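Lab notebook, bench 4. We co-purified these components, and the gel suggests they stay together. Before we commit to crystallization screens, I want a quick structural picture of the whole thing.
Request: model the full complex, all chains together.
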Amino acid sequence: MKLSREEVLHIARLARLGLTEAEADRFGEQLSNILENFEVLQQVDTSDIPPTTQSVALQNVVSDDEVAPSLPQSQVLANAPQKEGEFFRVRAVLE
Amino acid sequence: MNYETIIGLEVHAQLRTRSKMYCRCSADYASAPPNTHVCPVCLGMPGVLPTINQQAIEYTIMTALALNCAISEYTKFDRKNYPYPDLMKGYQISQYDAPIGHHGWLTIETDGQKKQVGITRVHLEEDVAKLLHRTPADGEAYSLVDVNRSGVPLMEIVGEPDLRSPEEARHYLIKLHSLLQYLDVSTANMEEGSFRCDANISIRPEGKPESLAKVEVKNMNSFRAVYRALEYEARRQRKAAEEGKKLVQETRGWLEEKGVTIAQRSKEYAHDYRYFPEPDLPPLVLNREWVEAMRSKLPELPEARRNRFVAEYDLSLYDANLLTSSRAMADYFEACLRKKSYRLSAAKSAKMVANWLLGESSRLLNVTNTEINDSKISPGQLCQLLDLIEAGSISATSAKQVFAEMFSTGKDATDIMTQKGLSQISDTHEVADTVSRVIIANPQPVADYKAGKEQALKFLVGQVMKATGGRADPKLVNELLKKKVEEE
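Here is the predicted assembly.
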């Protein structure tokens, strides 16, 4: 299945990625390749196999509701490209 | 043309856990400095491993059971992707196609008519960071992010579009709110945002299956706001339809001060969430034992408690309904009954406590916008006041004054009575003196009473009460007046 250029740009936009013309071509090609590989997998008859959402056989892994220490505020904000006082600062988001 | 209103409500309630949904940061963010209840997990750092908060799962199972839901034996979490900076990860861990509870119902009562409102689903997700929008006078607008709230367990309860009026919607919301407080799974404080409601509302020509455009209404921060916004929206849609305007499917925000809804700019690609199973969280198998253990933890729910109040305390259905409308009120009421010391029949004392709680107490709580939990009058203090009334130590009128003083200061009734000289005068000599003075000062009414005019006695009683500042025991005044007039 070949992804259209429009679809590639849409996916990039959802991921907040700005692509150059050349990148859109290159990634479009690669994404299409991945989809084609899945198309091959889809030929396997799985009608007798229950669907799974996991690759490990774990279930009911839960934690007790007990508070553990958080990070110091200075560390929380340490990697922020922009901060202001005690906050992260981001570009205005309009809803 | 006649139109029918179709409403469905979506409620989000923060769960009352100690820690967050997928990490062990404290969920108590209300008074914490910004960005201090934050760790690599809720910050969305690469390589971290979230884990499921068991308590949140159990609160959600309890809620789903109380809403008559089927519990999914197999449930899982899913990623809901969206590019908005209120979630640091770029996605919210929510539940998509296997919610914890589904296919339930909640019974509401409007004008004495019972109605079952369907519950589509009850699922768990996480709350998002708080954004503060800044618009400097001389520059570009920007936003500040406080991540403390991000990751707090959030339970979503989606109702079927079974509601047919804003009034029904209000009843549904009040009932659901009360239920969550009874279950003690959420503080459900609407003003603080731990209980939020969005609404879907549309109209359709009566008898037709198809609705006109469905409108989502947001930004309603109180029960009253929900009711007003829905009233407004139902009117707006009818008017537009009658004028032949085309209604569009959209999201509208409620503007409380203006009393209107306005169209909001819709998020671009809002519905392209690209859900997929959360690979970091193994699925949950909610087996029968687990579910039954949760069922056994359910407290007495509002309807059961109301019915018990009627049977056990001989209250009217009306009073019992009001008393059990909030768990705090019902608890306060029963705490009073456990403390009551005076010797009355159980039913009579229950009625007396009910009258004070639903009368003076509710009135003052409303006026001061206080929750009964925060009332300065303890159940024990209210009982003391009721004891004083029963013993005839204070008149009913003075008791109201004393109660108001107790309400604002938290002092004991006896202290206030001593301070203000409000004790009822039951001393025969003291009352007799006043009675004599009143008889001398009012010869005409005295003569009238002697001539057989019963009304005249009431006037004389009134004069004595006035002279004593309402503190004399009316029974004693009556007795003494009759006696003295006849002696003359």
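The mean pLDDT of chain A is 91. Worth comparing against the SEC data before the next meeting. Chain A touches chain B at residues 10, 13-16, 53-56, 58-68, 70-71, 73, 76-77, 84-95 (CB under 8 Å).
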